Design the sequence.
């Protein structure tokens, strides 16, 4: 019996930017007695069904965007006689769907770290349950990833998690509901050990795959103080101290390591934190800017962000402290108007962002936005090929609409076309070249240009969905530039004896 772990994707690029961490965590959680688990990441290459035999156990991890491909695989693998188990955020939200459409024998909700060995044992003994509750495991039970299972030469960045959970409650995000609002921080030693292991394999770039690297804002401390809540204050201070301890340890690693993470904009007010990030070589951060107007921020319950000129200043603060920002913006909010697009592009440029992504408002299940939308459209939801748009992930990729919620003043096509325009403007070659000045050498400027183009090809998912020629052209492009791009990120592996 072989254990297979499959990350589904309808598009394969041959090379991946970031290692999908769950594959290597569940690989590590697979008991040794079942042999070496087989890892398949379809963002590299599609699964060859022939490699799965009757009696094998296949774990398929799905988020909403790749659920349909996951179900297709599950049905085919079940037909081959394999035992099919689903997990991941989408299976957590819709366990019945995986049974009805994905040929599931079992579904795991929540974290897989502790429950996965139990599921395999039940599968082998023939005592499998329909549903397992993996729950939210404590930070000291997070299983460190098994990086020896990595296919060689395929990824640019490793991924290590330092904290799970986020205390905020943004309306478009499900993380605070699934991972919880209580930050679960991993012990510093365990995080550093994994980073060193990745460096031994030649990874210089590591994504800190956290929901929010900054779980305790200065405003949270001030609030606890104002409320005279000594216990809460103590708890927040200790979480904050652990962050500084982690960053101090990262700072001791060789200077060629580069880290990237996701963080809320409030960190810009915390100069001590930003300085610690710089010392730790955390050179980049995805910051959810979302909207550039106060109305837009209100739309997404992100009132803790800034708008207008204050926003530009906040974002520049990161840069002044040596942290380059990948700004994330959402288009299609009810308060957006035709003028919002150019205004957003202006802010992205004036704020000196290194990278940016412009996503169209997608109601993801498990979010406040999704629930409101589903309730509002009800049984009258538009249908594509008989599938209501409130189950958009079940619509085949090529026919999937790009804009879901009706907008008060713009048509879906207008929102899509204007969003595309902003991507095209931000990632035009002259603009990328000008931005690449933020890097020190010609080699790194070239890396910056290649990465910018790759990022745009992989993530600007705003093209006309039915134009499959365009999609495959973009895909081909990404495949061509992905390999040389990867070479710019890796380094000579450390010998096993070398330590930090
Ligand atoms: C790091 C990250 C990224 C990175 C790296 C992605 C990568 N290659 O790994 C980047 C920045 C590239 C990214 C991009 C995107 N992301 Co992202 N990302 C994350 C983040 C913060 C952490 C993921 C992670 O590595 N966690 C650590 C691992 C160990 O945890 P895990 O994946 O949850 O797996 C555990 C359990 O779920 C379970 N499990 C998982 N699979 C399986 C399978 C089986 C069989 C079993 C038993 C258990 C199991 O066990 C695991 C261990 O406990 C999550 C937030 C989150 N809390 O999940 C969002 C998240 C997954 N991303 C999300 C989104 C929306 C995106 C984008 C679409 C954003 C965009 N608009 O472009 C893209 C899509 C990229 C793609 N095509 O996959 C959403 C997904 C929502 C949804 N309902 O699907 C999340 C949940 C964040 C959010 N705001 O809601 N992302
Ligand atoms: S978008 Fe970011 S800050 Fe908001 S709840 Fe999700 S993880 Fe937290």
Sequence:
């Amino acid at each position: 019996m072989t254990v297979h772990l499959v990350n589904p994707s309808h598009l394969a690029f041959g090379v991946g930017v970031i290692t999908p961490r769950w594959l290597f965590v569940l690989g590590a959680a697979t008991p040794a007695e079942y042999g070496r688990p087989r890892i398949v990441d379809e963002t590299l290459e599609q699964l060859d069904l022939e490699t799965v035999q009757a009696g094998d156990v296949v774990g398929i991890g799905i988020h909403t965007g790749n659920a349909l491909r996951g179900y297709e695989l599950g049905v085919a693998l079940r037909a081959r006689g394999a035992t099919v188990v689903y997990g991941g955020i989408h299976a957590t939200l819709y366990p019945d769907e995986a049974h009805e459409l994905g040929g599931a024998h079992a579904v795991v909700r929540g974290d897989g770290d502790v429950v996965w060995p139990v599921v395999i044992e039940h599968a082998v003994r023939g005592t499998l349950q329909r549903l397992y509750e993996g729950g939210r495991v404590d930070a000291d039970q997070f299983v460190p990833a098994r990086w020896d299972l990595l296919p060689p030469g395929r990824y640019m960045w490793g991924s290590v998690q330092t904290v799970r959970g986020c205390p905020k409650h943004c309306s478009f995000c499900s993380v605070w509901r699934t991972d919880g609002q209580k930050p679960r921080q991993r012990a510093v030693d365990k995080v550093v050990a994994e980073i060193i292991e990745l460096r031994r394999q030649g990874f210089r770039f590591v994504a800190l795959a956290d929901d929010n690297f900054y779980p305790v804002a200065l405003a949270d401390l001030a609030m606890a103080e104002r409320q005279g809540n000594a216990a809460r204050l103590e708890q927040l201070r200790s979480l904050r101290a652990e962050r500084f301890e982690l960053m101090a340890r990262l700072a001791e690693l060789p200077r060629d390591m580069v880290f990237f993470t996701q963080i809320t904009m409030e960190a810009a007010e915390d100069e001590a934190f930003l300085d610690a990030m710089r010392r730790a070589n955390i050179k980049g951060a995805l910051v959810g800017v979302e909207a550039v107007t106060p109305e837009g921020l209100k739309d997404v319950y992100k009132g803790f962000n800034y708008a207008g000129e204050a926003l530009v200043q906040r974002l520049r603060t990161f840069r002044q402290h040596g942290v380059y920002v990948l700004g994330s913006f959402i288009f299609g909010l009810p308060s957006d108007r035709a003028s919002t697009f150019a205004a957003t592009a202006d802010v992205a440029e004036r704020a000196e962002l290194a990278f940016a992504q412009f996503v169209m408002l997608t109601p993801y299940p498990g979010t406040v936005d999704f629930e409101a939308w589903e309730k509002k459209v009800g049984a009258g939801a538009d249908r594509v090929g008989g599938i209501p748009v409130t189950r958009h992930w079940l619509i085949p990729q090529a026919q999937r609409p790009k804009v879901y919620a009706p907008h008060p003043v713009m048509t879906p096509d207008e929102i899509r076309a204007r969003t595309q325009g902003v991507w095209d403007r931000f990632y035009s070659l002259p603009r990328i070249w000008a931005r690449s000045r933020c890097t020190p050498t010609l080699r790194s400027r070239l890396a910056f240009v290649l990465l910018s183009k790759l990022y745009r090809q992989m993530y600007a998912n705003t093209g006309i969905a039915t134009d499959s020629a365009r999609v495959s052209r973009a895909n081909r492009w990404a495949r061509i530039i992905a390999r040389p791009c990867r070479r710019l990120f890796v380094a000579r592996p450390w010998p096993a004896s070398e330590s930090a």
